Amino acid sequence: MKLDQALEDAVKSVEAVQESLQARRLEAPATAHTNEFKGFLVLHSVKGAALVGFERGYGLAFSVLEWLPDGAPKLSSPLIFKVNKVALGMAMGYNEVFSVALLRDLSPLEALAEGAETIMGKDFDITGMTKPVQGDYSGRENTFHETSISGLGDEAGAAKAHVLSVSDSLMMCDLSLYGGHMSVDKDLMNEAYGSVYGTNQDVLRGRVELPVGLQPAVGGITAGLRSVVRSCVEAHDKLNPKVEKAKEVAKEFISYR
Question: What superkingdom does the record give (predicted)?
């Protein structure tokens, strides 16, 4: 994987999720305040199978250094990571998936930064019902994509996350069990930052300046994430009057009784 391609795919992932939210093909998680989100994972992956399957991809991981007055996140420089999964079971087809994970907890990013291969398992489950990015796949029922990423070894400490995922799917059937890992891609990090840039933790804590070559892509991703998070806040604002109305009805019912 070349760095330019990984950056391009990350931008496409955010754009695909943003467009799906605007078109109401995805439902944004209701969020009261932008500062509930502490970080983001942006992932593009390809899933394919002919009985024995695989899923692989690349992505960018950001921590939020602060939220700006215009609602945009001030992001750290990104960690560039790779995902590799294998599958056992019955599967046939091809699936291109664009995902954005909204993290309320930085523990998966911290685990990733520490250099250990992050186990992909059940304790940090990010799952999305995928929608076609383009074309008419309405006749295909099996467009369900599930990705599980664990940043912790202890299930009790599982990170909270929302994943928004869309898919350009030609997966005809998938009854497989997937397992694999996520890890920082050292070669792409060296290509992006040079061989000496400090530590991965320094990157996430905002101590490493964003390289010039990454600025256009990260600028586009930041704008897209601002739009995605705005959709989450708008979903909360629309939901809140309904909740208040339900409370009023409940109070009236209790008083009547």
Answer: Eukaryota
